Amino acid sequence: MKVKKNIGLDAKAPKDVCNSHKCPWHGALKIRGRVFKGQVVSSKSSNTAIVQWNYYNYVTKYERYERRKTRISVHNPSCISVAVGDTVKIGECRPLSKSKSFVIFEKV
Fold this sequence. Notes:
Elements: E1 35-42, E2 48-59, E3 64-75, E4 87-92, E5 102-107
Antiparallel strand pairs: 1-2, 1-4, 2-3, 4-5
């Protein structure tokens, strides 16, 4: 059984245990850089989830706001294992694959 470590962020540790080295709680992965909060829109791939959040952008020409969204592929550790519709916190880490540079560290 691996020990949960301090990841340096104000987050609750997961109750489950995993033995992945790509887990911020039970492995050697360090979270550094940007931290976001979003909603899971897909978790079909293995150990991968798509997280999305919406925001408004002001267009000066029309003096109005437009709706925009950001979608990011993130690593989904087996100890956290989120499903579609969950709100999560993600943190930037080293590149884990071609398209993943973020990892889920807390289910809100």
